[in-house]
């Protein structure tokens, strides 16, 4: 393809498509792709040539439209000349077109000729506009009163108190108007383009007309670059010097160009910096006055649009020079001011309706001075008077919509009729008429074309083509504390980008939309990150203050009070005493700002930017800034909560649930204060974050508090409890660490008492505890699997023991053949420990739920109590509902579901039932082995055994209930058999007087009583029928006699 492009560029436009086919072979092979890919470019070039033909043959009527048309035409030609590959694109298209259709495109010769003619664009343009020199010069010289007045240094603006409503208090309510209303907010950049490009095209007047020369030099001193279109700029000094260098008699003009360029390089940056500095102060004053007195928006609207236009001019100058003058120092508050101020203008602007009535009266009085008025002009002016005089205040009160476009179009026609040569009614002879109509046109726009006026004076879509400059400006503003309140202006400017497209080029809309949304989202995320950082830093400070008030920190204060009471010596002077909570609020000098003061000030500034607008539209996308803040806070708060947990998997350290809950409450309390600054739903934010913490993973796939505490309780607390390093204490309703020689990383009672488990229930809620329960059940099922394997290994012996339990001699022989009894009891104890922990958690969940959802909790409780129990599946469903609220159930639905999931198709229900019954036999005949363990001693203080065998009672009852529920068998009957077998084997302990088994015999007897007490299916009558009560009474007396109870 490269050889074809080189050939086309060399022979363009006279390309032999048939004689040199070897050079165009690649295009021949891919002619359809070439045709489709170059069609859009070719049609764009055709648009340029059509525009060129039409502009030359058009009759120009008005100065502004005339100059705009000239500048647009010149910009198109210059931009076209900068396209390096235009000849290759057009040549390839025509080549593919001829190869496809057998003939060249009809427009190709004209297009090729235009490319050749404009190979040196400025030379050709000056030739074309030579005949128009007089008209162009006359149009440009009409700016000699307007442009110098606008192009003043900031000192003169300041001395004239420009844009100040307070400079003349007596005239504050008077309508701001002048003879040149539209010129007051005309863009400086537009006028400079007119002057520079206009005098380049018609340069002969620069040597003959002093006024032209002065106006031209003033334009050259304004800057170095002018915008052609979007990010295409024109180096005005270089282009002017290159053009005049080839023309005789322009040596003085070249010297003027060099002088003006040096002036810009030396003074341009400082002059525009001072202008921006003045505009910042003037805009602040104008904003404050209009905020205090919004009624002034009506009479002083001209000041508003002047302020917007002046600010926009400085922004545009800054943007087009920022990348081309790298050493330029600038501030960006002007872009913030201009964009922010725009959003405040459109509030009460429709109060201008009453001016239209006054203009109707003025028009009627002016018409009386006209002696000659042709028919067409008379019809138009009569229409003006009738339209304006027909307006009334009632129309405004009735909220009627006004449309004055027809009136403004008629005024355009009247200017056309009265501006031609030898017009019967020349407009220049009636300046008062022009003034009044221009004033009328301005005020009618205030009623029905406010958006158009705002677009004209404050549109900043140029930033769409300078993204790097835009991002740099945002970064500088975000680093300046006083500018944080205006940061929302940057994403708001992105809503202007939709206006930078062109209907003739729809293919670029998608790319512009992506660029606009990317910039908008980037800015909003950065603002949200800054705001969330400040908010969460304040929350962290408050959390530290709240942490100082926790009970665990009061030991030093109590110790100091005790020293004072007992008159013991206080600590030495060298020791630094810890400050009491609240000391940070004591200040000797209020002017000294601490860290919290700075954070609150920064938060106020950042939140102020969110008050500029609730939402805005970027390319049909509705953007809500506060949603970005909520999203950031949600992500950051989730990370902070997880980080506050301080879980260390290596050392098995974790924050106590009550401490974490206190920290979260401190964060939530301070987050709610955010709603005092901006309208944001903090409750929804907190609910979303805390609800995610009740799940195994959050919305980003990260670990949650639920996962961390589940892992810790399973891997640390319950694992040590299964090894008897931690003991379950029914009396204290907690787990306690055993006293050992080894150093322990935590004390179990500090993490498992009622207050801690209630805090855990509040933290992770019912969903989190369900996840914890599922993990607990997984560990239980793994133990049950091993138990079943052991039952299968000893099945023959267990069957014989079940049938011969009333034959002591046979039982003695069978026990010798039975293996793994200690292992069975160990695994059952582990199951009991897990179930005891779950029961404690469920109890705390019940307390939490009864406080949070009292009515719903009572309804679930009543449903559970009055369950008719007709169908076991219905009963299990009710139990599952009750268990979710922490209510205790006779049959644990989670355990039932876990054991049911273990069943496979390989085993029949009868075999499962047989294994379950034999497992109870296995446990019952193994109970006497517990007496051999010295840790089987019953601890009255703890209310249980030191090796956690008291947890067997819960394990036996709940495991039996779950297994026989699945098998649809009578639970009570099966437990009766177990009780009978267990009583028989335990009674044999009393016959062994000299053996080691009698040492903890009484403690093991109590275990039988615990099984009956724990079971909802067994009663004391059943126990007494098979185990003498006197043995239980003596056992209790024996285990309690070692404790001395003292009173007083």
Automatic annotation (TrEMBL):
Residues 565-586 are annotated as: Disordered. Pfam families: Nckap1 (PF09735). One of its GO terms (cellular component) is SCAR complex. InterPro entries: Nck-associated_protein-1. It comes from the Eukaryota. GO terms for biological process: cell migration; cell projection assembly; cortical actin cytoskeleton organization; neuron projection morphogenesis. Residues 572-586 have a biased composition (Basic and acidic residues). This is NCK associated protein 1 like.
């Amino acid at each position: 393809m490269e050889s074809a492009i080189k050939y086309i560029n060399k022979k363009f436009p006279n390309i032999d498509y048939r004689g040199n086919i070897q050079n165009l072979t690649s295009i021949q092979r891919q002619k359809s792709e070439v045709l489709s890919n170059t069609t859009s470019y070719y049609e764009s070039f055709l648009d340029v040539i059509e525009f060129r033909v039409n502009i030359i043959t058009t009759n120009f009527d008005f100065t502004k439209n005339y100059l705009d048309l000239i500048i647009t035409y010149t910009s198109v030609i210059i931009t076209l000349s900068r396209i390096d590959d235009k000849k290759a694109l057009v040549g390839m298209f025509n080549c593919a077109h001829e190869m496809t259709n057998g003939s060249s495109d009809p427009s190709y010769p004209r297009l090729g000729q235009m490319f050749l003619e404009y190979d040196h664009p400025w030379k050709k343009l000056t030739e074309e506009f030579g005949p128009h020199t007089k008209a162009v010069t006359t149009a440009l010289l009409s700016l000699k009163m307007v442009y110098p007045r606008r192009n003043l240094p900031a000192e003169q603006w300041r001395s004239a108190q420009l844009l100040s409503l307070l400079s003349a208090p007596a005239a504050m309510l008077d309508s701001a108007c002048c003879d040149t209303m539209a010129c007051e907010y005309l863009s400086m950049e537009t006028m400079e383009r007119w002057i520079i490009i206009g005098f380049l095209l018609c340069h002969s007047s620069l040597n003959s007309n002093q006024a032209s020369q002065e106006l031209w030099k003033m334009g050259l001193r304004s800057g170095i670059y002018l915008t052609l279109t979007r990010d295409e700029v024109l180096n005005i000094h270089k282009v002017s010097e290159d053009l005049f260098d080839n023309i005789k008699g322009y040596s003085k003009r070249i010297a003027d160009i060099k002088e003006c360029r040096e002036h810009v390089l030396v003074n341009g940056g400082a002059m525009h910096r001072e202008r921006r500095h003045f505009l910042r102060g003037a805009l602040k004053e104008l904003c404050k006055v209009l905020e205090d007195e919004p009624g002034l928006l009506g009479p002083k609207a001209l000041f508003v649009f002047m302020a917007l236009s002046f600010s926009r001019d400085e922004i545009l100058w800054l943007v087009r020079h920022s990348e081309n003058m790298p050493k330029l120092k600038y501030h960006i508050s002007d872009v913030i001011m201009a964009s922010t101020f725009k959003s405040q203008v459109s509030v009460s602007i429709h109060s201008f309706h009453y001016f239209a009535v006054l203009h109707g009266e003025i028009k009627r009085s002016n018409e009386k001075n006209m002696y000659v008025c042709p028919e067409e002009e008379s019809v138009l002016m009569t229409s003006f008077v009738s339209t304006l005089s027909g307006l009334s205040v009632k129309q405004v009160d009735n909220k009627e919509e006004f449309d004055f476009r027809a009136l403004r179009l008629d005024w355009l026609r009247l200017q056309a009729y009265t501006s031609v040569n030898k017009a019967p009614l020349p407009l220049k002879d009636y300046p008062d008429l022009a003034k009044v109509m221009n004033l009328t046109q301005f005020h009618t726009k205030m009623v029905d074309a406010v958006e158009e006026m705002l677009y004209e004076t404050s549109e900043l879509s140029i930033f769409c083509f300078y993204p790097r400059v835009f991002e740099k400006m945002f970064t500088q503003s975000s680093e300046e504390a006083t500018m944080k309140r205006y940061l929302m202006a940057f994403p708001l400017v992105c809503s202007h980008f939709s206006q930078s497209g062109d209907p003739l080029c729809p293919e670029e809309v998608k790319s512009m939309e992506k660029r606009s949304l990317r910039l908008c989202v980037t800015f909003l995320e950065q603002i949200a990150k800054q705001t969330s950082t400040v908010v969460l830093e304040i929350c962290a400070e408050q959390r530290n203050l709240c942490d100082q008030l926790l009970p665990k920190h009061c030991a030093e204060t109590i110790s100091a009070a005790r020293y004072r009471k007992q008159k013991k010596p206080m600590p030495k002077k060298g020791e630094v005493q810890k400050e009491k909570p609240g000391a940070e609020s004591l200040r000797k000098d209020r002017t000294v700002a601490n860290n919290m003061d700075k954070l609150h000030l920064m938060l106020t500034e950042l939140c102020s930017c969110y008050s500029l607008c609730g939402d805005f539209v970027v390319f049909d996308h509705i953007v809500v800034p506060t949603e970005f803040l909520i999203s950031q806070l949600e992500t950051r708060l989730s990370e902070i909560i997880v980080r506050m947990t301080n879980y260390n998997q290596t050392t098995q350290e974790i924050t106590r649930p009550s401490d974490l809950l206190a920290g979260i409450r401190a964060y939530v309390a301070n987050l709610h204060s955010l709603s005092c600054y901006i309208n944001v739903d903090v409750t929804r934010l907190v609910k979303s974050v805390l609800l995610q913490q009740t799940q195994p993973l959050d919305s980003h796939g990260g670990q949650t508090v639920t996962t961390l505490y589940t892992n810790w309780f399973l891997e640390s607390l319950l694992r040590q409890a299964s090894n008897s390093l931690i003991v379950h204490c029914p009396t204290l309703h907690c787990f306690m660490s055993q006293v050992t020689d080894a150093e322990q990383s935590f004390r179990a009672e500090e993490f498992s008492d009622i207050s801690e488990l209630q805090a855990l229930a509040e933290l992770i809620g019912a969903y989190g505890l369900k996840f914890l329960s599922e993990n607990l059940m997984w560990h239980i099922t793994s133990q049950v699997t091993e138990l079943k394997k052991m039952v299968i290994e000893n099945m023959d012996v267990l069957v014989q023991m079940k049938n011969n339990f009333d034959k002591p001699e046979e039982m003695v022989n069978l026990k010798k053949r039975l293996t793994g009894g200690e292992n069975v009891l160990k695994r059952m104890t582990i199951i009991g420990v897990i179930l005891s922990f779950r029961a404690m958690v469920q109890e705390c969940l019940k307390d939490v739920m009864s406080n949070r959802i009292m009515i719903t909790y009572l309804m679930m409780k009543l449903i559970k109590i009055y369950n008719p129990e007709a169908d076991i599946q219905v009963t299990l469903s009710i139990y599952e509902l009750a268990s979710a609220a922490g209510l205790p159930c006779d049959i644990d639905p989670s355990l039932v579901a876990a054991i049911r999931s273990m069943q496979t198709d390989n085993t029949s229900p009868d075999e499962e039932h047989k294994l379950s019954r034999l497992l109870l036999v296995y446990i019952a005949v193994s109970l006497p082995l517990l007496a051999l363990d010295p840790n089987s001693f019953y601890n009255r203080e703890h209310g249980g055994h030191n090796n956690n065998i008291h947890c067997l009672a819960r394990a036996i009852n709940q495991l039996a209930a779950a297994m026989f529920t699945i098998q649809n068998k009578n639970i009570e009957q099966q437990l009766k058999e177990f009780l009978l077998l267990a009583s028989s084997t335990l009674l044999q302990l009393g016959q062994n007087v000299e053996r080691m088994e009698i040492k903890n015999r009484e403690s093991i007897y109590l275990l039988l009583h615990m099984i009956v007490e724990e079971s909802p299916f067994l009663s004391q009558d059943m126990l007494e029928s098979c185990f003498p009560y006197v043995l239980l009474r003596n056992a209790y007396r024996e285990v309690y006699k070692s404790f001395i109870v003292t009173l007083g």
